[in-house]
Amino acid sequence: MNRSCRRFTGFFVLGIFFLTVHGLAMAKDATLTNIIVTNTRDDLLVYLSVEDAFTQKIEDAVKRGVPASFSFFVNLYRTRGMWFDKKMADLTIEHTIKYNSLKKEYAVSRSWDTSSPVIVQSFDAAKKLMTEIDSLKVIPLGLLEKGKQYQIQAKAKLSRVTLPYYLHYVLFFLSLWDFETDWYTIDFIY
């Protein structure tokens, strides 16, 4: 009887392990979407958004008052065939969300937006502000040569949260909600 209990326990533990690994494999990865490269009369612009950036753990932490920051990296290269590509722009943009539980509002700061921080009441509106970049000026068009080939690379990453030392023991789960997208590349001729 004792031996059959151990066998049952072994199958039970193996089943839980399988379900846990399977559940982790089924989790969605954050991806960049809707990447658009366009221009105004004076500037080259980029639009992009991130999907699946807010997991349940990130949402819960933000709603408890833990600030979260997303970093966006945008690079512009002039591709030159057999020669090394020339880096024309290297931008790092940061979005930060903070929840004020007394006022029940979210403040979203976006480093490239002059009207930051934006205050909203809805978490969905705050998530939209956090995950989108609209009309980011990459470079003045005067610095680009007509007829030449260029490449935009973009990537997003959840920045590590820095907390007071005593909270590291309480909020150890924060290391589980890191994400980083792959680099996405768009080639174009100006």
TrEMBL record:
InterPro entries recorded: DUF4390 (IPR025500)
Pfam families, A to Z: DUF4390
Protein name: DUF4390 domain-containing protein
Organism listed in the record: Desulfosarcina alkanivorans
Organism lineage string: Bacteria, Pseudomonadati, Thermodesulfobacteriota, Desulfobacteria, Desulfobacterales
